[in-house]
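> forwarded from #structure-qc
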C-alpha cells in the first residue's frame, strides 16, 4: 500500500468520527489500469470485484493476492453488484445489457431491450430485497450504435418474469443509485448537466417511485457511483474523491484523492474507491 498526503476534508467532526476510525489514511492499493468502475465486495470470498471498462476486463483484489484478472473480455462491464444469494449482477456497458453470473460461473443475459428496442448502455445496478434489479441506462458508450430509446431511463426488472419497467424518465444521465436502509427511499445520481443526486420515495408495493427532489449537489466534478450506508448516509464519487452526505443532505466530509473517483464500495472495514487508473482504500467504520 502506498500512503498519500491527501486524506480528508472534515465538515462535521462529530458525524465524521462515527464514520472513520481515528488516524484513518487513504492508501493506494493498485494503479496502472485504465478507467476503474463497478466495485462489488464479495464478503464470503473476501475479495473486491471491479471493472476496468476500456481494458474490457474485470479484476479482483484481495489482501492476500492483490489485483488479479477476474473476467476478460468483460463486454466492457461497468457497474457491478451482488444479488441476495451473492451472485454477481453486472451492467455490461459494451453489450448494452444487464447480466447475471450464475453459481456455476456461466453468465446469463437478464435484459437487453425495452419496448422491443435496444437499451442504451446500462451503467450501474442495484438489487432490492425482493430480488428486483434496478439499473440506470444513460447514453454513454453507445459507440457506433444508433440510440434506440427515446430517453435515458432508470429501470426496474423482475429477474423471474423479465418484466421491465421504466421507473424514472426525467434524468439527463442517470448513473449511480442506492436504496436507503429500509428501502423506503431511492437515491439516483445524475452525472449529466445537473451533477446532483435526487431522492425518490419508493411506493408501498416497492415497484415504483415518486418525488425526486434534489438531495445534494456535487461541487467538484459530478456524481457517478453512489452508496448508502447502514445509517442512511449517502456516499458519492466526485471529481475530488468521495463526498459523504448525512441523511438530511449536509456534507459530512470529503475523502480526497489525487484522481477523480467513479465509484466506491464498503467491505471488510475498508472503503474502496475506484478512481481512474487506481484503486484506493481507507479504513472506515460505516457499513452497507
Ligand atoms: Mg457509473
Amino acid at each position: 500500500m502506498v500512503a498519500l498526503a491527501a486524506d480528508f476534508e472534515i465538515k462535521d467532526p462529530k458525524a465524521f468520527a462515527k464514520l472513520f476510525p481515528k488516524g484513518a489514511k487513504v492508501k493506494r492499493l493498485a494503479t496502472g489500469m485504465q478507467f476503474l468502475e463497478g466495485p462489488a465486495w464479495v464478503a464470503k470470498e473476501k475479495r473486491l470485484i471491479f471493472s476496468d471498462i476500456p481494458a474490457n476486463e474485470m479484476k479482483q483484489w484481495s489482501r492476500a493476492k492483490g489485483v488479479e484478472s477476474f473476467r476478460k473480455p468483460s463486454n466492457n462491464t461497468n457497474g457491478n453488484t451482488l444479488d441476495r444469494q451473492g451472485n454477481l449482477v453486472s451492467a455490461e456497458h459494451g453489450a448494452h445489457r444487464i447480466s447475471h453470473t450464475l453459481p456455476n460461473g456461466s453468465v446469463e443475459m437478464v435484459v437487453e431491450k425495452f419496448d422491443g428496442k435496444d437499451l442504451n448502455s446500462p451503467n450501474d445496478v442495484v438489487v432490492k430485497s425482493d430480488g428486483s434489479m434496478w439499473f440506470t441506462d444513460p447514453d454513454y458508450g453507445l459507440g457506433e450504435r444508433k440510440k434506440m430509446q427515446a430517453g435515458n431511463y432508470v429501470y426496474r426488472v423482475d429477474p423471474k418474469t423479465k418484466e421491465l419497467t421504466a421507473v424514472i424518465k426525467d434524468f439527463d444521465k442517470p448513473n449511480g443509485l442506492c436504496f436507503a436502509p429500509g428501502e423506503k427511499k431511492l437515491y439516483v445520481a445524475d452525472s449529466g448537466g445537473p451533477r446532483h443526486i435526487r431522492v425518490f420515495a419508493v411506493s408501498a408495493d416497492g415497484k415504483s417511485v415518486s418525488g425526486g427532489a434534489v438531495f445534494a449537489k456535487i461541487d467538484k466534478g459530478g456524481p457517478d457511483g453512489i452508496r448508502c450506508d447502514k445509517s442512511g448516509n449517502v456516499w458519492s464519487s466526485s471529481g475530488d474523491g468521495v463526498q459523504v452526505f448525512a441523511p438530511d443532505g449536509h456534507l459530512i466530509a470529503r475523502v480526497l484523492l489525487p484522481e477523480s473517483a467513479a465509484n466506491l464500495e464498503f467491505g471488510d472495514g475498508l472503503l474502496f474507491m475506484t478512481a481512474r487508473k487506481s484503486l484506493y482504500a481507507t479504513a472506515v467504520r460505516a457499513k452497507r
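QC bot note: Confidence is low (pLDDT under 50) at residues 1-5. The domain at 2-283 is CATH 2.120.10.30 (Neuraminidase).
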